[in-house]
Design goal:
Strand order of the largest sheet: 1-2-6-7-8-9-10-11
CATH architecture: Alpha-Beta Barrel
CATH superfamily: Phosphatidylinositol (PI) phosphodiesterase
Number of domains: 1
Structural class: alpha/beta
Radius of gyration: 17 Å
Helix content: 25-40%
Strand content: 15-25%
Oligomer: single chain
Largest sheet: 8 strands, parallel, barrel
CATH class: Alpha Beta
CATH topology: TIM Barrel
């Protein structure tokens, strides 16, 4: 089972910063998961929220900034012990990323993000998974890049009803996605068997408890995302 760092090693460094990403790889993460939002000039920024208040202390929305203006921001504002750094662009993440690292790229918005994503990736598909909650975003990605592996994100704070799960599996097949990335609280051994039986990849988010990570591995989950990749990697190695 792969261990993917959720927004980098977010328990140790400000999320989605270069510091968090480098620490994730140092801790032995197999890859990183990041959120992407579109700037005013069309480029993609590593940012979960629609505005920059929580991470950078700036109330402006991501969509109102461009690549140059984001250089005035400090994504490590909440950690004065760290050197300041601006929020990262996807292009910069791709430069930082080791060649053998998995990349899970979540599109937080709509189909308009697909074109700049593909421009940044420049044909790179190996060890990349593109994630979205919105099916229309996945459908547009499938239309523009048939070979790009796609994952459908689903929230599940409790195990879904059989009818709900059946709808997810039908929707995944109709959208041509490679797999599902599910909230870990809703996962059961029966659900995992159903997803794998449908020929889909299966991931779980967000897992910071070693015992839960070991359980998900036993259920044949392909990967999990964690804020503490080093802790989870160590726990799995000892099991």
């Amino acid at each position: 089972m792969r261990v993917i760092a959720h927004r980098g090693a977010a328990a140790d460094f400000p999320e989605q910063t270069a510091a968090a990403l480098r620490e994730a790889w140092r801790q032995g993460a197999d890859g990183v998961e990041v959120d992407l939002r579109r700037l005013a000039d069309g480029r993609l920024l590593l940012q979960h929220d629609s505005d920059l208040r929580r991470c950078c202390g700036d109330r402006r929305r991501v969509a109102r900034l461009d690549s140059a203006s984001r250089l005035t921001l400090n994504a490590c504002l909440r950690r004065p012990d760290l050197p300041p750094e601006p929020p990262l662009l996807l292009d910069e993440l791709l430069t930082l990323c080791p060649a053998d690292s998995w990349l899970l790229l979540e599109l937080k918005e709509g189909p308009e993000q697909v074109e700049p994503l593909l421009e940044a990736l420049a044909g790179r598909c190996q060890l990349v998974r593109v994630l979205a909650f919105r099916r229309e975003t996945l459908l547009e990605a499938r239309r523009q890049a048939p070979a790009l592996p796609l994952l459908w994100l689903r929230a599940a704070s409790r195990p879904p009803a059989p009818r709900t799960l059946a709808g997810w599996l039908r929707g995944a097949e109709a959208a041509g996605v490679h797999g599902l990335d599910l909230e870990q609280a809703g996962l059961t051994s029966e659900l995992c068997r159903a997803v794998r039986g449908a020929g889909l990849e299966l991931g779980a988010w967000t897992v910071d408890e070693p015992a839960r990570a070991r359980q998900l591995r036993a259920w044949d989950v392909d990967w999990l995302t964690s804020n503490r990749p080093g802790l989870i990697r160590q726990a799995l190695a000892q099991a």
